[in-house]
Amino acid sequence: MMSAALMNRLISRDSVRTEATVQSDVRLVLLEPDLGLAEHELEVALETQIGDKRRIDVEVGCTVIEVKKDLRSPSVLARAAEQLAGYVTARTEQVGQRYVGMLTDGALWIAYTEVDGRLVEATRHTAAPGEAGGEALLIWLEGVLATRQGVIPQPSEIAQRLGADSSSHALDFATLAALYAESRNLPTVQLKRELWSSLLKSALGTQFTDSDELFLEHTLLVNSAEIIAHLVLGVDARQLSPATLLEGSQFELAGIRGVVDRDFFDWVLEVDGGAGYVRALARRLTRFDWSAVEHDVLKVLYESVIKAETRKSLGEYYTPDWLAEATVSKAVSDPLHQRVLDPACGSGSFVFYAVRRFLQAADDAGWSLADTTRKVSSQVAGIDLHPVAVALARVTYLLAIGRERLTAPGRGDVSVPVYLGDSIGWSQTSELLSGDDLVVPTDTGDMLWSGELRFPGHLLTDAARFDDLVITMTNEAGRAAGKSTVSLSQGTVRRLALTESDVRGLNANFVRLKELHEQGRDHVWSYFIRNMARPEWLGRPENRVDVLVGNPPWLSYRYMPARMQAAFKMLSQDRGLWKGGSTTTHLDLAALFVARAIQRYLKTNGILAFVVPNPVIDRDYWAAFRSGKLGTGVEVVNVAWESPWDLRRLRPHFFPRGASVVFGRRSHAAATMPGEAEIWSGRIPKGKHTWVDVAPALNRTSSSVAVSSKDQLRSPYSSSFAQGASIVPRVLFMVEPAPVSVLGVAAGRQAVRSMRSSTEKKPWKDLEPLSGTVESEFVRPVLLGESVLPFRVLSARKAVLPIVDNVLMDGDSERIDGYPGLATWVRETEHVWMTNRSSDKMSLREQLDFRRKLTQQFPVPPIRVVYAKAGMHVAAAVVTDQRAIIDHTLYWGSMSSLNEAKFLVSVLNAPSLTEMTRPLMSYGKDERHIDKHVWKLPIPKYDPENEIHVAIVASGEELSEEISQLSFESDYFITQRQAVRRQIASTNIGKKLDEAVRELLSPGTG
Q1: Count of CB atoms situated within 10 Å of the CB of 553
Q2: Average pLDDT, the chain
Q3: Using 50, 70 and 90 to split pLDDT, how confident is the model at 433?
Q4: In 3-state terms, what secondary structure has residue 449?
Q5: Among 513, 507, 508, which residue's Cα sits nearest to residue 492?
Q6: Phi and psi dihedrals of 263, rounded to 5?
Q7: pLDDT at 358 over 90
């Protein structure tokens, strides 16, 4: 740990210090043990001669550092960068290695990558004082220098040292971006970029956003995975050529197939400077001990590089290792005889634990190593439609087998059965398997692939043999390009035991592949054939698997683009899964995916286990799925469901949405999902990833599931309540008082400006606040969810709302010019809206009154009850301010009398009411959502003649008076609500109210 004294001295920029003293302190930093220079026997050299009487201030490994006294001046920084560029270029030419350049004055550190003789800034770090600042600087420096060795690839280390926020990633991405900028117009680079784009458009439709940044992130991830694959086997990647690392020839020589392919992402081998980038990437990845992996760590790399919004748009929620391990353990009971498939394998978590389970069973049964490694590829497989996920999952498969087995004498050939494929079949119009043959189109045309290669279907039975055949055939065809050779070699025919009838058809393929090589269209055929063949083969009834396990994509209908919504609706209707009406937006891709995967890949009596969104087990719009009959106009698929796992009570949340795991069998007769679930609760231990470490911290009990449905709305008040208005974007409406000059403002007007909030989203959060002078009658109080405590209303927000005589106006309204302050404000906000709105065509008035949630509040009733939409506890209050507008974070209803309002508020705030409602609530990321679930309880209409009702009103009045006098230590509404709930729970009158409400809602009472 770097001393605080050194850190404070380093960043001081003291006027008395010299460049020599800064240089000396920089050297002391570099000698810190945490940087691991001693492990490489690297020296920190000062004043290294470079020729032409030039000297490098500090040199360590492949990094040159230029030290200045103070870099805050732009001119000083520019001159120093120019000087550094000369050093980096000279060193690169002299040594033949890619060098990194660094500038520092002790406080500011900037790392540069060199591309074609010029420096490109990759990452910078501003040092902070103290030991914490020293630790952060060392992490940043280590990422640049890549000097540590033997780092255990724990998730935290992966994210910190390789993730998007690391200096390592910044350097590699900056280099890659600069290489691409200079070579993007080369035909070979263009072709691979187009192939990548075409594949993802075909697989993902309008979900896919074609961007250079995403292409480069995918390139970096796949290149990293291919290098890590070598490191898993103990191969020193630094000693191999870049071409060897990205083409996978070492694996082919070792009899390990299907790991590294020639794909879209090896374009870096074909551009100037690409080899240096690969070597530098290999050096950074070699820091880790990839033999010490006990779980799927590559998902951490993916999640730390690809943005959360991108993953959400694809429905990607990667499963924690402990949950994947537990799910596999329950689903796979006989690993030596059950064939297992994850049809949406992602980075391979479920595949990892299925492989490990098979290997343990093989060891227990005394199988030989050769039999074990040969058999595993036929027992455990994965499919994903994302090429990056497939690349990561293949390395995860190797990690599961482990270095010890893969490098042991007597190990048989290994084929990694992780394939690129679309398990739903969004855009597939014809089957690749025609009769007994696999037919792969290759002719040019509008499609990415069209034409024909034909393989006898029986060759697909043995995955390893088929992969070997395709790889060998494409390699031999490439070597035969331009020659007279028209057939496979006899050595290949003998080695693969091919029959005479097989060879005739295969030789036709050989000639076609040779032609493709000669046409320069030889880039992806081995990759494509092997990837598309296995999913098609698995879909044949005789080849279906015994166990389907995994985590399907989660994507709600409301987040799907229009074209995908249309396809989703059609496919869901065919399987009886479509539910129209207001719940349509909640329908999820997970249901269709599971149904389609069962139909295509699971044999009758086969087992399924999927991690799915929690509403699967208790929301009405999943009722068809829970029925077990997953087909109407297509092949009927029947599932006999078993009790699910309900995981939504676990903390901390491991997905943005609540989760469950469903289990069942493909059956001849459907069986509805049981009304009982295994409820999991507890806190997941921080930093623990294996089931053996997590399981002791969890509680697992069986309990009934309360299925929620709008048909269950049992209270007559259900139709009386509506959600408030969506007054967004807030910057255009919510205001606070603005400073005024000494002259003040005219009577009847208020000077206001936009009230900002940390919850604003782009592009609104980046806009300048609006300001103006508006007629006071249009500055109205707005009640938000945070404005309401049980029995008490807090201060309201203020908003400029153009409402005249209960009519909502816009800039074109006839009467608005009678209010010049309002007219100016409204027209300015409309201009800002039109300039910054998304692709929707709504006017600002339509946005403000979406679904009439604003105008339905007028004329404002004299007595209203409001309650918060979200939260763990119901919080309700009476509102009598007729100027107040209700925001969408509240529900509101009009009451006929004050006593009726007091009655209903008292019922809603009773602890027993929340207790009864909670099983019916929807779960969000951090809280349940109350919405209208309270009305599923039999809350009766207020009756002034009913003794219980009258008693509840009296108790509520007394409690309300007590709560109105409470003073709070915190201004935070959550803390204030907690204080009020403690008051209700601890006082006699609160307990009396709760008993009365419990009696009111008991069967036969009301």
Answers
A1: 21
A2: 86
A3: very low
A4: coil
A5: 507
A6: -140, -160
A7: yes
Structure tokens at 665: 């069998």
Which pairing describes strands 108-115 and 100-104: parallel, antiparallel, or unpaired? Answer: antiparallel
Q: Mean of the pLDDT values across residues 112-118?
A: 81
Is the Cβ–Cβ distance between 594 and 552 less than 8 Å? yes
Mean pLDDT to the nearest integer, 40-62: 79
Of 874, 872, 811, the residue nearest 844 (C-alpha): 811
CB 432 within 8 A of CB 438: yes
Distance from C-alpha of 858 to C-alpha of 844, rounded to nearest angstrom: 19
| Cβ-contact 288, 316 below 8 angstroms | no
Distance CA 6, CA 24 (A): 11
Listed in sequence order, the residues at least 6 apart from 808 whose beta carbon sits closer than 8 Å to its beta carbon are 801, 802, 845, 848, 849, 854, 855
887: β partners: 725
pLDDT in tens, 895-905: 999 999 999 99
Burial readout 713-746 (b: 16 or more C-beta within 10 A, e: otherwise): bebebbebbbbbbbbbbbbbbbbeebeeeeeebe
The answer to whether the bond into 441 is cis (omega within 30° of 0) is no
Instruction: Report the share of the chain in percent with pLDDT over 90.
Output: 44
- Sequence letter at residue 412: G
What CA–CA distance (Å, rounded) separates 353 from 549? 11
Tell me what percent of the chain is helix, strand and coil, each rounded to the nearest 5.
45, 20, 35
**Interatomic CA distance for residues 400 and 359, integer angstroms:** 9
User: In angstroms, rounded to a whole number, what is the distance separating the alpha carbons of residues 351 and 162?
Assistant: 24
Find out whether the peptide bond into 387 is cis, omega within 30 degrees of 0: no
Structure tokens at 705: 């599931």
User: Could you give the 3-state DSSP secondary structure of residue 41?
Assistant: coil
Contacts by 614-617, CB closer than 8 A, 24 or more apart: 614/646, 614/647, 614/648, 614/657, 614/658, 614/659, 614/660, 614/923, 615/586, 615/588, 615/658, 615/922, 616/590, 616/591, 616/644, 616/660, 616/662, 617/644, 617/646, 617/660, 617/662, 617/673, 617/677, 617/705
Contacts of 224 (CB under 8 A, 6+ apart): 162, 281, 285, 301
Whether 478 and 518 have beta carbons less than 8 Å apart is answered as no
- Using DSSP's 3-state secondary structure scheme, residue 526 falls into helix
Which of 28-42, 277-291, 755-769, 797-811 is least confident? 28-42
- Specify which residues 751 forms β-bridges with: 773
Tokens of 898: 């004050």
Kindly compute the dihedral angle of the four CA atoms of residues 478, 479, 482, 484, in this order, to the nearest 10 degrees: -110
DSSP string, 887-944: BTTEEEEE-SSHHHHHHHHHHHHSHHHHHHHGGGSEE-SSSEE-TTGGGGS-PPPP-T
Give the residue carrying structure tokens 């065919």: 574
382/349 Cα distance (integer angstroms): 10
Nearest-10 Cα torsion for 770, 808, 785, 928: -110
User: DSSP per residue over 558-571, as a string?
Assistant: GGS-HHHHHHHHHH
Q: Tell me how crowded residue 286 is: count the other CB atoms within 10 A of its CB.
A: 21
Q: What is the average pLDDT across 35-59?
A: 78
In this prediction, residues 634-651 reach a mean pLDDT of 88
Residue carrying structure tokens 């709504």: 842
| Prediction pTM value | 0.72
Quote the CA–CA distance of 500 and 529 in Å, as a whole number.
Answer: 22
Q: Which of 207, 348, 179, 144 is nearest to 276 (CA)?
A: 179
H or E element at residue 807:
strand 807-808
Quote the CA–CA distance of 65 and 80 in Å, as a whole number: 10
User: What size, in residues, is the chain?
Assistant: 1006
What would the mean pLDDT of 548-572 be, rounded to a whole number? 82
**Cβ burial, residue 859 (10 Å; 0-12/13-18/19+):** exposed
Indicate the helix (H) or strand (E) that contains 502: helix 500-518
In angstroms, the CA 336 to CA 327 distance is 17
